[in-house]
Design a protein that fits this description.
The chain has four helices and no strands. The chain has about 90 residues and is mainly alpha-helical.
Length: about 90
């Protein structure tokens, strides 16, 4: 039986800097993202995931927008630090 990959996302482009700023805001820390101000060779300029396949095949729809999804994710990591601190990657 074959396996398939699915993407789940907002389907809206979000820059890395905007994502970093949003995470910093949600976490309530005083920090600034580090911006290298130089292009990375071979990096794709603009990209984002399409959830079209998941919507069609799985009848999936998102329950959260980006900010709320990040809030839930950060909350989980904060509440489960004992689990992910013990991982050896």
């Amino acid at each position: 039986m074959g396996h398939e990959g699915f993407n789940f996302g907002t389907e809206k482009p979000t820059s890395v800097i905007d994502l970093a700023k949003l995470i910093i805001q949600i976490m309530g820390v005083r920090a600034k993202p580090i911006i290298l101000n130089k292009p990375t060779i071979g990096e794709i300029d603009v990209q984002y995931l399409s959830s079209k396949k998941a919507r069609k095949k799985l009848k999936w729809t998102p329950k959260f927008n980006l900010k709320n999804g990040l809030m839930e994710t950060i909350k989980w990591y904060q509440e489960n630090q004992d689990i992910w601190n013990q991982q050896t990657w």
